[in-house]
């Protein structure tokens, strides 16, 4: 049945996503290790790389923080109708939590109770987008660890100078955070829209491939500028100094309200993990990332 | 310089440490994070701190919320890298005072940790390196306050060759940028 195929495919991506980061991360850490002058920074980088190797080889979650599991669904409008996405995702997450295992990261904010299932009231978060005239279902899982997510911020700036000051606002936040978000970090930034939309764009921006710039030249330039400024802080791997503080900056925009200049910042740790599958109408996987 | 230390440590040995030195630890330490720190202080003030905490004198607190697998009432650590220490900042000096530990292990450092006169030393373990812990823990000795959840409970661990840990805060000085 199609539901079962989707459930199995979700468990598969959850397994893959916990034991290895995006391949580009390993490439960049390796490259930086060769050029890094600071001995302490090099010691951090070598540990990170060894840990990735060990996790992959032994099929162990590379980080004990297996994150809040953000699901992005791109549902083709011609994909067969399914009545129970929430149930299906909950069940897949609960099974994966036991199987892999994942850390129980869903805690009741009032009572502090933890069902150790990664499910519960309003989680995991599911973001649905309907794609017109498409036959396929794509599901991306993006586990978001707490240390980096805690540095995230929403700035409601003034339209008269928002574009001029948003970079320094972000730099101030990162300077203060130092080693807390597990640098070298990645930044997802959403500019425009409203308070919710800019944060959502910021999170989605992190799913863009590393070192791929925004297609609009003026935005691409902002990305490069900010990347340079963050690396000039020399916070370095784990906040102990070094040349690599930020791996990449991705900015996405939306039209803003005339009175508002919202900027959303989502910070991601170096252990950048997401995985996806795309399935056709018969439940056959046609693409995996 | 590289140091191999056995826990509990003789306090005199801390004076041989310098910022940037690498430390490997052997012996007993405990995991504790947000809720455990609160509970240590609460139960200390109501005189209900479990006696096993007495064994932590001159030992270490590890800021960590591990992944633990439970099979037929025995436990196995799957992954257990450090969590952000700064969250425990406001409670840490009091907890050090109560438990008399000599090391805090975590990531990112702590803004108000009092390391003066080698009262306690902060050791940094590389964030995100959870999988490698898997081979450093010889045994889970016991778990206290499991009602806090797997991640927040206090896990008493017998570790072997736990490191490389870097001395990043010592005697009032810090390596953090």
Structural account:
The complex is a heterodimer of chains A (289) and B (177). With 289 residues, chain A is α+β, with helices and mostly antiparallel strands. Chain A folds into two domains: 2-20 and 62-145 and 273-288; 147-268, no CATH class. Helices cover 39% and strands 22% of the residues of chain A. A five-stranded mixed beta sheet of chain A has the order 2-1-3-8-9. A four-stranded mixed beta sheet of chain A has the order 4-7-5-6. In chain A, strand 8 (275-279) and strand 9 form a beta hairpin. The longest helix of chain A has 20 residues, at 39-58. By secondary structure, chain B is mainly beta. Chain B has a single domain, classed as fumarase (Alpha-Beta Barrel), CATH 3.20.130.10. Helices cover 13% and strands 37% of the residues of chain B. Chain B has two helices and ten strands, in the order E-E-H-E-E-E-H-E-E-E-E-E. Chain B has helices at residues 34-45, 89-99, and strands at 2-7, 22-31, 60-62, 67-71, 74-79, 103-106, 121-124, 137-144, 154-170, 173-174. In chain B, strands 2-3-6-7-9 form a five-stranded mixed barrel. The model of chain B has no long low-confidence stretch (mean pLDDT 97). Classes of the chains: A alpha+beta (289), B mainly beta (177). At the A-B interface, helix 3 of A face strand 9 of B.
